[in-house]
Amino acid sequence: MVWSIAKKEILENIVSYRFFILTALLTLLMAVAVIVGYGDFLLRLENCAVLRPAPNSPNIIIEPTPMSIFAKGLEANLTRLYEVTIHQNQQSVNRIFALFAVPDMLFIIKVVLALIAVLFSFDAITHEKEQGTLKLTLSNGIRRPSLILGKLSGRFILVFVPFAALFLLALLTISLLPSIAVTGSFLLKTLIILVVASVYTLLFTGAGMFVSSIVHRSSTSMVASLFIWLLFVFIIPNFGTVLAKSLTPVPTSDRVEMEGRLSTIQAIFNRIQREKEKPAGREGRWMIQQLKESTTRLVELYRPKMNALIRTTKSLVRISPSGALNFLLTDIANTGLYEEVRAKDAIAQYVERNFNRINQLEPGPVDVFRYTRALPGEVFSETGYVDVAVILFFTALFITAAYVRFLVYDPR
């Protein structure tokens, strides 16, 4: 019975203008996301080739990942050149392209797919009530649990199956493009993104069904459903980041860099003064040690505050399933906050091991920096499980609420 109702929902809506228009919009956006995302990935490969450190150079650059085509995240920061000297710094080329951000696959899933799910589910019940068919359907002996589950399944299939087909086509296209290394890890990560997208689609389908089960007019249901979409996708995530910054103040990166440069100037001035007093002294070694200590103090002051800001931001933004989705998919794609913190920790450890050799305080070659991005298992065990739990909780909440509310819904 559930499948029969789902099939009826699919056949009634698949020939509608709404289905064709929204599916065409989704197709266009996904095509643009693949084309522009791949172009951005090639640009980062070119930047990497230009900025790649020479042999025996202590400078560091991390290779771009093709997963940035799906979720760009913080890839621009991760793939910059790290100049490992007395005073560490980051540089990049073609920075103007950061001004022209474009939607990636994450944006399509988080914003567009959720909107389409809402637009296909907000009138699932109210429309039939307005047409008078809901009362007739229930009077013919169809049980309410079967009806609500059939409608939920049919509307979900209408939204997710076209997206899944387009996503797999995009994946096939990307896999055939030059410079894309298709590995088992790459395919696993894209499969995880698709599975998470299915649950996320079900969440907003359930949200639209829930709203449709508590109101009696389609126009009211549409307004309320769009409000829930706006609240979860835009309002809570953006307000959460602003609130986190006010609750956990952190000095800006420009200020930290300026303080580091001031420390460098001060150390050089002190060296000049000491050389005037002791021309044959070891002021150079003393200056380098002074700079190392001042940089360490800055890091010890800045990093705990930044980590506290990250924790506060995640806690507030995860009130929304869209915020949790953003954290989860960027971390899975190795372009999120977890990867950035992990990479900076690896760089800090590398500098600590090689500091004396980099600054020629002791003989010996500088180690080659090697970095491998996190595997999905590590991401899930460290931070991803929380985001998965948030998304599953809201999915279960809306589906259960829609189911329970429809059991007592008045079809008259």
Question: Which tags fit this structure?
Answer:
mainly alpha, 14 helices, 2% strand
- The tally of helices reads 14
End-to-end distance, in Å?
23 Å
**What are the segments in which pLDDT stays under 50 over at least 5 consecutive residues?**
91-100
* Share in helix: over 70%
Provide the residue-averaged pLDDT. Answer: 84
Give a verbal description of the structure:
- With 412 residues, the protein is mainly alpha-helical.
- It has one domain.
- The protein is 73% helix and 2% strand.
- It has 14 helices and 3 strands.
- A 3-stranded antiparallel β-sheet has the order 1-2-3, with no helix packed on it.
- A hairpin with a 5-residue loop joins strand 2 (81-83) and strand 3.
- It is elongated, with a radius of gyration of 27 Å.
Layout of secondary structure:
Elements: H1 2-13, H2 17-51, E1 60-61, H3 75-78, E2 81-83, E3 89-91, H4 105-121, H5 126-131, H6 133-139, H7 144-176, H8 184-212, H9 218-247, H10 253-277, H11 283-317, H12 321-332, H13 337-358, H14 376-407
Antiparallel strand pairs: 1-2, 2-3
Helix pairs in contact: 1-7, 2-4, 2-7, 4-7, 4-8, 4-9, 7-8, 7-14, 8-9, 8-12, 8-14, 9-11, 10-11, 12-14
Can you summarize this structure?
The chain has 412 residues and is mainly alpha-helical.
